[in-house]
Every structure is written in C-alpha cells, then in structure tokens.
Amino acid sequence: MLEQLPYKSKQFFIAIIKLSIIVGASYYIYNRLLKNENLNFSEFASFLSKTDAFSTKNIIFLLFLTIFNWFFEITKWKILVSTIKKISFFEALEQSLGGLTASLITPNRIGDYGAKAIYYTKPYRKQIVLLNLMGNVSQMTITTIIGFIGMVVFYSTYDLELNYRKVSSFLIIVVIVTSFAAFGLQQSRFKIKGFSIERVIDFVKNIPQRIHVLNFGLSLIRYGIFSFQFYVLLQIFGVGIDYKTAMVAISSMYLLASIVPSLAVFDVLIKTSAAVYLFSFLDINDLIILSISNLMWLLNFILPSVFGSYFVLNFKLPKATD
C-alpha cells in the first residue's frame, strides 16, 4: 500500500505511524507502572528503597545480564537474516529494538513481525516474517521443553491442586487443534496470506543445518541468561533458596507465561498471578515476586524499548535497490 502513495503522502503516513507507536508504547508503560492493580507503584518504589536492589554493584550486574540477553537475540536475528541477505550487527540491533518497541502495543508481540518486515523491500518481506517466526518458535520450543521438565519436578515435589476435569478438557482441545493443524499441513493448497504451507516447509528445509543449530543454541543461551537474572533478583531480595529449587519454579513460570497469552487477553495479569501462585509454594512473599516481575519487565522490555524508540523515530523506508 505504501508503495502506491505519493512521496509526500507516504512520508506523512510514516510519521503518523511512528508517532502512534511511540505514544502507544508510552501509554502502555505508564499504565503498567502507575495503574497496575497487582502492585501499587508507590509501594513498589518504597519496597525497593528498603533493599539494596539499587546498589551500584547490583545495577551493573543486572544491566550486564540484560545487555547479554539482547546481544544474543540480536546476533540470532543477524544470523537468520543472513540466509537471504547480509546485514550488519547495527542493522540487526536497529530492527530488533525497533520491532520490540512496536510490539509493546500489540497482542502477543505480533507487531514485531510487521515492524521487522517493513525494514526490507517487498520481495524480502514474506521471508523476513518466516525467519522471525523461526526465531520465536525456537525460543518457545526451548521454553516449553525446559518448562515441562520443571513443571513435572514441581508437581512431584509440591502438593499442587489440579482440576483434572479442566486439564483433560484442555488436552482434548490441544489434540483436536493439533490434528487439524497436521491435516492442514498435508494440504498443499492451504495458504497463509498467499504463502502455501508447502512453500513454508520448503523454505525452512532449504536453510542450512548450521543456521538451525545456531538458532536453537542462541535461544538456549538467552533462556539461561534471563532465568538466571530472575534468580539473581531473588538473591538480591534475600530469598535464600538454591539455584536448582529456584529454576524448577522459574522454568514452570515461564512455561505458563508462554502458553497463557495465546489463550487470554489479560496476559500480564495471568502471568503475574502464575508467578505469585508458583512461588507461594516456596513460601516467598508476594510483594517480592511482584517486584521481581516488574524489574524483569523493566530491564528486558522497557529499557531496550527506550532505545528502540530512537530507531522508530529515525526509521526510513528501504530503497528499492536495498
């Protein structure tokens, strides 16, 4: 659509989109921080001031983990895009952080797909969307595998009260959806926005094995970093549990956080509730878990999105020769 607009109209339209993204992201952050029903901001700030969470040593170490988390995400994106086009690390950084900022105002961060695709000319865009999907699927796969193991251990260790009727109903729905998906994959005429499933499978198969290994390897490293960051925050707030025990709860929490948003609109509320519920079995104060969840969100989403806002504001449509 943009290609068909006159130059001045195109520039005006892009400026409106940029402004909408920045305003929308700012409003989202404001609501999450100051209008959070689960954790009052003044209570959150007061609680932090009573701990050494803001000591220079802790801040440097937490920022160090955040930087490395995004360094590996950016590196993963650079490697994935290299299968169709060579880009620099800075370009990968710009696209990753710009996409993050745009995704804050969309359900399940789906805006990230469109934001990254628009950095490329039309012939590349479908492939970019598929590569982004591959990166997200690899991260989800790592989260699911480790989370499932953690959940099994958690369930066998603690007295979880499960509604087996609801669990059975959920499993039946999963089997039905999986069956329909498998049937759809067998139909070569089945398409997603003009891109047949057969072509998608061929696209993934044609990507070198080395890229797939790196994709999953970097996803695993990222998972290790942000889960360790959560554990570090537990230690900062004086929670005296060992790493193995903490990881069982952390991995279970991330599993629920990854699955739930696809089932409910109020993903932030449910994620926080899941964290509080799981860590209650370890006798950890709710305020500590709510504070850590907020800090993880600030460190790994809001802080990078501030830099992403700069890239959004300075975005220019790619030239046809790019």
From TrEMBL:
Membrane-crossing residue ranges in chain numbering: 12-30, 54-72, 129-155, 167-185, 220-241, 247-266, 287-313
Source domain of life: Bacteria
Keyword annotations of the record: Membrane, Transmembrane, Transmembrane helix
Protein name as it appears in the record: Lysylphosphatidylglycerol synthase-like protein
Organism: Winogradskyella haliclonae
Lineage: Bacteria, Pseudomonadati, Bacteroidota, Flavobacteriia, Flavobacteriales
